[in-house]
Each structure stands twice: as structure tokens, then as C-alpha cells.
TrEMBL record:
GO terms for cellular component: plasma membrane. Its main location: membrane. It comes from the Bacteria. It comes from Auraticoccus monumenti. One of its GO terms (biological process) is peptidoglycan biosynthetic process. The chain crosses the membrane at residues 75-96, 116-134, 160-180, 192-214, 234-251, 258-278, 284-306, 338-359. Catalyzes the initial step of the lipid cycle reactions in the biosynthesis of the cell wall peptidoglycan: transfers peptidoglycan precursor phospho-MurNAc-pentapeptide from UDP-MurNAc-pentapeptide onto the lipid carrier undecaprenyl phosphate, yielding undecaprenyl-pyrophosphoryl-MurNAc-pentapeptide, known as lipid I. Keywords: Cell cycle, Cell division, Cell membrane, Cell shape, Cell wall biogenesis/degradation, Magnesium, Membrane, Metal-binding, Peptidoglycan synthesis, Transferase, Transmembrane, Transmembrane helix. This is Phospho-N-acetylmuramoyl-pentapeptide-transferase. Belongs to the glycosyltransferase 4 family. MraY subfamily.
Length: 366
């Protein structure tokens, strides 16, 4: 628990103190935001704001995690390293996308297919490590089942044999990763919007992981214990990013002095999906990230409604936050209300998590 507190505090201080000089450097490099002319007109003033801020809190997360371990002397674990690699890998894809946007000064960036190929490459490199990785006691890092709050027996992929199980696992992790990373990316469209929503999501995971560590099957065990490997260290790395986003939000809230860019948003998405898989809460992720599901759904609805109606629009503009801005809501109002929805999802997920544990232990009331 001490390591988690240290990671959080170091993360906050890192971004609070180093984001300002990073803004200066990014401006000198010419890495500034391009603003779409067909978007909300109130966003035109954002042109020239430095982007790629994900580099700051991405580096800060690694630093905060390392400092926490240096201070406490606790061992670094494979699970936490995988989460960091997922963040770095997806963030690298986002960096290429951001670079093309700032270099060419348009919103095109990486073609959609190229971005997905890049994300799939990251998944292809990390999933085998997760599938065949194990702790010192020989426990697998990930489950052979699709998970909710622990394994879902009906969704045990191992029942189809090892070869089919690996193929199905790759397909499932690919779907979950692409959906999550791109869903998180779409939310990043207003000052401080994604940072605030991600703080809620990560706070939920930090609490659940601490609870899993206290009720781990590798410890005292008992009814309802959790099979999650390295839950305590997963909580540490979660607090490292959580602290950095708190510090980053100081600079990115309205009016933003810096944007995280796809470097940050895809990195956060990769981090969240790795947490979901390694904490064995994959089907709980859509509840924790309800805001990502809502905003992504608005884009899909808009796209297919436009296609099937011959050019009509369901929303004034997609993603959903831009629809509300064009409906007369201020950007700050949209951001705060979306934060509230995100907090609602996080709190609901925690209640589901705890209620499920109570039911498994037989402690739930009538």
C-alpha cells in the first residue's frame, strides 16, 4: 500500500512540475494542435495549443512506478510491466498519428486501417507474453476464460482445446483492445474531458485491485478469493498513472494549455484494457468505461445512419460531446457532466464488484 501511495504522489508532482516546461518545448518543436474548421466554432481558438502531452504523463507513469519500487524495495512484476508496455505501445501508435497531423497541419493523421494495424501489432507482441507468462508459483497471468469479476465458467475458452483456445483468446483480446483504445481516443475532444474520465476509471481499478490483494488466493485464500496475479503491484502502476493524470489535468482543464493528443489517449486505452485483462474484470470494463461506450456508440450511430438515410445526420455532430456543444452547452458544462457520468460508471462497477464478491462468499443478505 505504501508503494501505491508513493507512486500516486510522485505522479502528481511529476506532471504538476514538468508539464509547464514540456509546453515550452512542444511549442518550439511546432507540435501544435490542428483544429477542424467544420467542428464547433468555439474550438478554433485552440489552434496552436501544444499537443502530444501524453509523452509527459506516459514518462511520468514509468518514473512514478520506478520510484515507488526504489523507495519500498518491492520487486517489479511481469503484470505491471505488461500494463506499462501496453500503454507505451499504444501510445507509440498515437504518437505517429499525432506527428503526421502536426507535420501536415491537418486532421488526417494515420489512415484508419494503418492505425488498427499498428494496434494489432502491439497486441500480437504482448498477448503471447500474457498467455504464457506466470508468477513464481506457476500461476498464469491471465485466465483461460473471459472474465467478469473472476472467471465466467460458461466462457472458458480452454474447453475447446489448447490450439482453439489460443486463437479465440487472440481474437477476444484483439476485439477488446481495439474497441477500448479507440473508444478512449474518441472521448478526447474537449479540454480535460478524457483526463477527468480516466481518473474515475483508474480510481475504480485502484480500489478493486487493493481489495483483490487483500483477498488473494495466493495469501490466506478462502471462499471468494481472487486468482489475480500481482494485484498489489497492478494497484501501484495504476496509482502511478492516476497521479500523473491528476497533475496533467491541472494544465489540460479548460482553457487547456496542452493537449494529450492520440499519444496520450491511445496510451490510456492500452493501459485500461491491460488492467482489465490482468485483473480478470474484462466484462466489467464497459461499466467502468460507460462514457467511452456512449461516445463511441454515437460515432457508429452517426456513421451508419448517414449511410443508410442517404446523407441525413442523427446527431448534429459526432462524437457526442460535440453534439451537445452545438446544441448550446458550453464546453465546460459538457466536460463536467461527462465526468459525472464517468464517475457514475466507476461507482456502479465498484458496487457490482463488491456485491459479486459478497455473493460468492455467501455473505450477501437475503
Amino acid at each position: 500500500m505504501v508503494a501505491a501511495i508513493v507512486a500516486f504522489c510522485v505522479g502528481v508532482l511529476f506532471c504538476l512540475l514538468l508539464t509547464r516546461p514540456a509546453i515550452v518545448v512542444l511549442k518550439r518543436l511546432g507540435w501544435s494542435q490542428f483544429v477542424r474548421a467544420d467542428g464547433p466554432q468555439t474550438h478554433l481558438v485552440k489552434k496552436g495549443t501544444p499537443t502530444k502531452g501524453g509523452l509527459v504523463f506516459g514518462a511520468g507513469t514509468v518514473v512514478a512506478y520506478a520510484v515507488a519500487h526504489a523507495v519500498t524495495g518491492e520487486a517489479v512484476t511481469t503484470s505491471a510491466v505488461l500494463v506499462l508496455l501496453a500503454m507505451v505501445g499504444m501510445g507509440a501508435v498515437g504518437f505517429v498519428d499525432d506527428y503526421l497531423k502536426t507535420h501536415h497541419q491537418n486532421s488526417a493523421g494515420l489512415p484508419e486501417r494503418a492505425k488498427i494495424v499498428g494496434q494489432l501489432l502491439v497486441i500480437a507482441l504482448l498477448v503471447p507474453v500474457a498467455l504464457w507468462g506466470a508468477d513464481r508459483a506457476g500461476r498464469s497471468l491471465v485466465s483461460s476464460s473471459i472474465t467478469f469479476v473472476g472467471d465466467v465458467e460458461l466462457l472458458d475458452l480452454a474447453r475447446w482445446g489448447p490450439v482453439v483456445a489460443v486463437v479465440l483468446a487472440l481474437a477476444w483480446y484483439g476485439f477488446l483492445s481495439i474497441g477500448t483504445t479507440n473508444g478512449v481516443n474518441i472521448v478526447d475532444g474537449a479540454d480535460g474531458l478524457l483526463a477527468g474520465c480516466a481518473i474515475s476509471s483508474l480510481s475504480a481499478y485502484a480500489l478493486m485491485l487493493v481489495f483483490q490483494a487483500q483477498n488473494s488466493c495466493s495469501g490466506a485464500g478462502g471462499a471468494g478469493c481472487f486468482d489475480t496475479v500481482h494485484p498489489q503491484d497492478l494497484a501501484v502502476v495504476t496509482c502511478a498513472l492516476l497521479g500523473n493524470l491528476v497533475g496533467f489535468l491541472w494544465w489540460s482543464c479548460y482553457p487547456a494549455r496542452i493537449f494529450m493528443g492520440d499519444t496520450g489517449s491511445l496510451g490510456i486505452g492500452g493501459f485500461l484494457v491491460a488492467l482489465a485483462v490482468l485483473s480478470r474484470t474484462e466484462l466489467l470494463l464497459p461499466v467502468i468505461g460507460v462514457i467511452y461506450v456512449m461516445v463511441t456508440s454515437s460515432v457508429l450511430i452517426q456513421r451508419y445512419y448517414f449511410r443508410f438515410t442517404g446523407g441525413k445526420r442523427f446527431f448534429k455532430m459526432a462524437p457526442l460531446h460535440h453534439h451537445f456543444e452545438l446544441s448550446g452547452w458550453s464546453e465546460s458544462t459538457v466536460t463536467i457532466r461527462f465526468w459525472l457520468i464517468s464517475a457514475f460508471g466507476a461507482i456502479t462497477a465498484i458496487m457490482i464488484f463488491y456485491s459479486t464478491w459478497l455473493a460468492r462468499t455467501g455473505s450477501a443478505g437475503p
